[in-house]
Amino acid sequence: MPRRVLQGKVLGSKGKRKDKTVTVLVERKFRHPLYQKTVTRSKKYHAHDESNSLSDGQLVKIIECRPLSKTKKWEIYIE
């Protein structure tokens, strides 16, 4: 099965115990089935950043990977 790739914006890249971890906000838009209005949903993911080079506000792609910690199951996708 192919691994999912999502695109989002880096929210948090700094923290005391969050070395090599960034928080990525992924927004998706869809049409409501009944009211036909465009609805925006967002979700935060913790992603692994090996080089610690990302800063807040950058657009990045993340890809599914094996569980690296309790909450970290995504890594930064470099093409």
Q: Taking Cα atoms only, what radius of gyration do you get, to the nearest Å?
A: 14 Å
- Unreliable parts: none
Total of domains: 1
The structural class is: mainly beta
**CATH C-level label:** Mainly Beta
The rough form would be described as globular
The ordered string of helix (H) and strand (E) elements is: EEEEE
Strand content: over 45%
Instruction: Please give the count of helices.
Output: 0
CATH superfamily descriptor: Nucleic acid-binding proteins
- Give the spatial strand order of the biggest sheet: 1-2-3-5-4
The major sheet is characterized as: 5 strands, mixed, barrel
Total strand count, please?
Answer: 5
Tell me the CATH topology.
OB fold (Dihydrolipoamide Acetyltransferase, E2P)
Question: What percent of residues adopt helix (DSSP H or I)?
Answer: under 10%
User: What does the average pLDDT come to?
Assistant: 92
Protein model, in words:
The structure is a single chain. The model has no long low-confidence stretch (mean pLDDT 92). The protein has 79 residues and is mostly beta strands. The protein is built from no helices and five strands. The protein has a single domain (5-76), classed as OB fold (Dihydrolipoamide Acetyltransferase, E2P), CATH 2.40.50.140. The protein has a five-stranded mixed beta barrel with strand order 1-2-3-5-4. The chain is globular. Helix content is 0%, strand content 52%.
